[in-house]
Amino acid sequence: MDLDQCRKDINNLDKSLLELLAQRRAISRKVIEDKLERGLDLRDPKREGEVLETLIKAGRELGLDAHFVTRVFHEIIADSVRSQESFLQTNLNPATEKLLCIAYQGVEGAYSYLAGEKFFRGQLDNCSFEGYKNFSDVVAAVENGQADYAILPIENTTAGSINAVYDLLLATKLSIVGEEVFPVQHCLLGIEKAPLSTIRRIYSHYQALAQCSDFLSRLKNCVQETYMDTAEAAKKISEDRDPEQAAIASEEAGRIYGLEVLKRNLANQRENYTRFVIIAPRPNQVDSRVPCKTSLVLSTGHHEGALLKALSILEHHKINLTKLESRPMQGSPFTYIFYLDFEGNASDPKIQEALVGLSGATNYLRILGTYPRERHDKTRPSIRSRVPEKTGAPEDAGDHEPSTPTPEEPTVARDPDGRSLTALSTKPAGTIIRIGETELGGSEYVVFAGPDCISSMDQIGAHARQVSECGAMILHGSCLETNDSPFKTRRINFELLEILATAGKEFGLPVMTEIESVLDVAQAAQEVDLMKIGPRNMQNFSLLEEAGKTGRPIVLTRGISATNDEFLEAAECVLVQGNQQVILCERGIRIDERNSRNTLDLGTVANIRRMTHLPVIIDPTRAIEHGNLVLPLASASKAFGAHGLVVDVRQNGNANPAADALTLGFEEFAKLMTGLYT
Question: Which residues are tagged catalytic?
C-alpha cells in the first residue's frame, strides 16, 4: 500500500471517528433528558469507573495502552458532561436569540479573548467579542448595556490574585455566572528568528512579566516595558518591525500578528493557569445536579476570633472552602474584607442555612454569584485494572503467595527526645500527602518507578509509558551529573530534568528526582512534584533546611548507619522550616563491610510507624540481587506498615549484573505490579 492510499484510509477513519463521536453526543443528550425526568444525578462515578476498566481491557487486546485509552475516555466524558450541563442550564436559563456581545480587556489574541472563546465555544456563531483598554471599562460595558457578558482574569497560579478585579467585583452590582481556567503558555515573540542575546526591549502586561521573571532575569542588557495587554504588545512589535524588540504573549497572538516564536514555556512555574470569571447583569440559576461554586464577600468585626467564628460555620455545615482572599476596605485603614469561594449551590438548603448563620457572624455579607464549576473530577481506573493481567506464576517465586495484609494501627511510642513535629502524638491519624491524583500515607500502596539515569526524551518517554501502563503512580529518575569523585556534590542537569518533567506530564505521572546541592533546590522545586534526598545527604542540614523552605514533598532516605532517632531528627529539620510534607524512605543498612549490598531493615519500618505520623516507603534496590525478591519484600513491607515502594526500571534491566543497585527490566516490572495488585 502506497503513502497516498494510507493517508486516504486514515482520512476516512478520522471522518468515521467524528461521526461516531457526534452520535455519542446525541445519545448523551437523550440520557440527560431521561435523568431529568427520573431525578437522577448527572454523573455515576461507579459506572464510569466500570466502563473505563472494561475499555482498558478491550484496548489492550487491540494493542492500545491504558494511558491512551484513559486520556481518550476522559475527553469523551468531559464533552458529555459539558453537553449535559449545557442542556440543564438552558432549561433553567433559556438562551436568547440575539447576538451576544462579550467584553474583554485587550485585543484579539489576548488571554482574556482566548479564554472567552473557550468558555462560549458552544455559542461562537452567536457571539461577538469587543476589546477594551482596562478592566473598569470592561465592567462598565456590561453595566451600561453595551455588552451582555464580561470576562475578567481573577487569579494566576504563578503571580497570584489580580487585585484590581477583586476591587471591581465589590463595587459592581453584576453577578458571577461562570468561570474558566485557562492554561497560560507564554512565548517570546519577535518579527524574525534571532538569538535571545540580540533582544534589547521586551513588552508585555505586568502580570505576564511577573510570571516570567526568572527567564527575564537571565537576559543581559534587556529592558522590560509594561504594556496594557500581552496581545497589544505583540501587535506593537508587529507594527514597529524592530528586530531588537520582542513581546511576551500567546502563540495564538503571534500567529494573528505575523510574529515568530523565539522561545516557548517562559513562565516561572511549569503549570501556569489563569482563572477567569464571567460576569453578567443578573445571576443565573444552577441546576442542583451540576457541581458548582459560590463566591461571596464578607467583613467581620475587628476583635479576637471574629473570622474564625465565621469560617467555623462553613466547617460545621461540611462546606469545602476553595479560596480565601483578603483586601483592604476602602476608607477604613487596616480594616479588611474577605472574598470566599466554596463548593456548593446557594439554592441548596444546607448552603442557605450556612449563609443565614454567616450573616449573623459578619458585619457585611454579599453573594457575588453561584456558577458551574469549570473543573470536574476525572474518573480514575483502579490500579488492578491498569496492571498487566497475570499470565502465569512468577519465575522462581516458589510458593510465595502475594497478599495485601492490613497492618495493625500503630500505637504511639514514647518520644524521649522531645521531638514535637515528627511525633505520632502530633497527628495520631497520620499524615496523608496528596501528589497529583495519588494519596500517600493512606490505605493505597504507592509505587515509584523509573530509570536510575536519564539520557534522552525517547528513553524517558519509553520508560514513562511502561511505568504508566503497568500501574505505577509516580515517575522517578536521576538527573544528577556524573563526576570523578564520590566526595563532590553533584549538580542537577536541568535540561534532563525538563525532559523528565515533560514525560511525566505527557503520561499523567507526578515526577520525583534527587537533589544534592543547595543551589539546585529552588529551581528543581519548580520543575518536579517531589524531591528526594539520598542517604549520604540525610544529615546535610543545609540541604534539609533549604528543602524545608519549598512547598514540595520531600522523600528523605535513611543513611546506611543512621539510627531511628537520627532519621527522625533529620526529618524534623525539614519540618521546622515549614514544609510538613516529608516521606521517610528505608533503603537498608550496612552490616557487613565486605558485602556491597545493604540489608533492608523492615523492623525499622514497623518501629518508625510507631514513632511518627509521616508516611514510610521502602527502596530495596540496594538490598537484593534478584528481581524476583522485590515482590516478597514489598508484600512484607505492607505487613510492617509501609505505604509504598521505590524501584529502578530500565528496558533491559541491569546492564551490569555486578552493579550495586538492582534495576528491573520492563517484563520484570510488569510481573511485579501484577503480583502486587492482583
Answer: 274, 276
